[in-house]
Each structure stands twice: as structure tokens, then as C-alpha cells.
């Protein structure tokens, strides 16, 4: 695709190393991803891994996955005419400079898991179960807590508790059967 070739020629004007990751060209600085070039059915474009730090004077950057991705931004093109080499190269160069400055988005750390009162009562009454719960990974603990907390009725919370207690004792996660 000619659009990808044009973007690649611009990327090669930077000091970045060209690698192939996830089946697309990705440009790195000292092993760190700076941006990648990819094509989709209706568009092609550049993924800036830490695009949240780009100034975006042209207003062209979009959040990669609204609500999920905090740092990544996408510069999309529908046709070759939309590629303004000076502007695209300026975005690429700024991304390189930001990488050199160490502007890297670090994900928010999860806050401590809040154990629902119903589960906490059962854990406090049964030391063996409490020990088993503490031995499973924090991720699995969160899954169990969310499973109980998301039930709207007390009856549902109790039926869910009855279901998960044997799983906790075995060290299983609530969704392990699907993994």
C-alpha cells in the first residue's frame, strides 16, 4: 500500500530503529516503542505509543481505544492526499524527542482490593479459607470481590458466595475455566 510506504519513508528519516512487531513496522529508540505504522480496512496511520505527550497542534490525534488506553494516540489517514510530509515528520520527531526526555506514561496502579462485607464475614470465620484467599493472586482476589459486590440482591450474593468458596479453597480464579 502506497500510504504505508510514504509513512515508512518519513519514519526512516528519524533516528529510530525499524523493527517488525505484531506484523507491523514499529520504530524504536533503545528498544523502546515510539510509534508504529499500520493499515486497516478503511484507513491507515501511525500509532504513537506515548502520544498523550504530543502537543497535537493540528488536532489530528485520536485516543486509540476510548476509555481503555491512556497513552496511545492514532494519526489516521483515509487517502494519500491527507499525508502532509512536513506535519507528519514533525509529529514523528516530537515523539522521538519525548522518548529521549523519558516522557513515558506509566499505568495507574490498582488501588487495594475492597473485600465485600459478605465475603469478609465468611473469611473471618474460617481461617483456612482466609489463608487460601490470601494465597491466590491479587487479580483473582479482585475478580472474586467484584463478583460478589456486583450482585444487587442479598440472595444473589449468598448464592455466589456458596459457588466460589470451594474454588477459593482450590486456589482457582473465578474465570480460570475460560482461560
Automatic annotation (TrEMBL):
InterPro entries, per database record: YdeI_bac, YdhG-like
Protein name (database record): YdhG-like domain-containing protein
Species of origin: Muriicola soli
Superkingdom field: Bacteria
Annotated Gene3D superfamilies: 3.90.1150.200
Domain YdhG-like: 3-96
Pfam families (UniProt xref): DUF1801, OmdA
SUPFAM superfamilies recorded: YdhG-like
